[in-house]
Each structure stands twice: as C-alpha cells, then as structure tokens.
C-alpha cells in the first residue's frame, strides 16, 4: 500500500471521529428528560385542577395500580425463587440417585 492511500484512510477516520464527537446524543438524552418533566408537570397541573373528591379518587386509582404492579413483581420473584429451589432439589436428587447408579454400571 502506498502512503497516499494510508493517508486517505487516516483522514477519513479523523473526519468520522470528529463527526461522531459532534453528534447530538447528549442533547437527545436531555430532550427525553425534558419531555418526561413536561409530562409530569402536565399531569400534576391536571391533578391539582381536579376537585378534592376527584383528587382522592385519582390517588386511590393510582395507588391500586402501583400496588397491583408491585404485587405482580413480588409474585414473579417468588416464582423464580421457587423454580431455583426446585432446580437445586432436582439436581441433588439426580446426583444422589441416578449418578451413583450409572457409575456402578460402568464399573462392572
């Protein structure tokens, strides 16, 4: 390869690197945070404009939804732990019952 061809690759790499460094990835991320903040402020404004019984009802519905999601997560974790314990018990049973029998068969 000649030096001219090498230089072109290095120049192209430098241009690409400069382009990536100038890309607005951070501003897009801050735009997402601003959008979430704006949504939160809109919901808070709507909530505060509700009459007191409406605020109580909205809070109750939100609490029920949060507790339902929390309950589902706890049940999922419980099911995963049960499966893990069952897997360990099956592995122990295999090692104690089946593995010694197969090694005795191979010894004969």
The Cα radius of gyration reads: 31 Å
Order of helices and strands: HHH
Unreliable segments of 5+ consecutive residues: none
Number of domains: 2
> Which range best describes the helical content: under 10%, 10-25%, 25-40%, 40-55%, 55-70% or over 70%?
over 70%
Strand content: under 5%
Amino- and carboxy-terminal Cα gap: 68 Å
What is the structural class? Answer: mainly alpha
Shape: flat
Helical segment count: 3
- Largest sheet data: none
Strand segment tally: 0
Mean pLDDT level = 84
Briefly summarize what is shown:
By secondary structure, the protein is mainly alpha-helical. It has three helices and no strands.
Provide the fold topology.
Elements: H1 3-22, H2 25-49, H3 52-107
Provide the descriptors you would attach to this structure in a database record:
single chain; 3 helices; flat
Explained architecture:
Keywords: Membrane, Transmembrane, Transmembrane helix. The chain crosses the membrane at residues 56-74, 80-98. By secondary structure, the protein is mainly alpha-helical. The radius of gyration is 31 Å and the shape is flat. The mean pLDDT is 84. The N and C termini lie far apart (68 Å). The chain has 2 domains: 1-49; 52-108. The longest helix is centred in the C-terminal third of the chain and has 56 residues, at 52-107. The chain has helices at residues 3-22, 25-49, 52-107. It has 3 helices and no strands.
């Amino acid at each position: 390869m000649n030096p001219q061809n090498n230089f072109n690759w290095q120049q192209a790499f430098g241009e690409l690197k400069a382009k990536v460094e100038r890309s607005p990835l951070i501003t897009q991320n801050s735009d997402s945070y601003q959008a979430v903040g704006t949504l939160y402020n809109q919901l808070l404004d709507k909530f505060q404009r509700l009459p007191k019984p409406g605020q109580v009802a909205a809070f109750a519905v939100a609490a029920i939804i949060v507790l339902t999601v929390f309950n589902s997560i706890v049940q999922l974790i419980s099911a995963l732990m049960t499966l893990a314990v069952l897997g360990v018990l099956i592995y122990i049973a295999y090692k104690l019952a089946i593995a010694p029998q197969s090694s005795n068969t191979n010894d004969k």
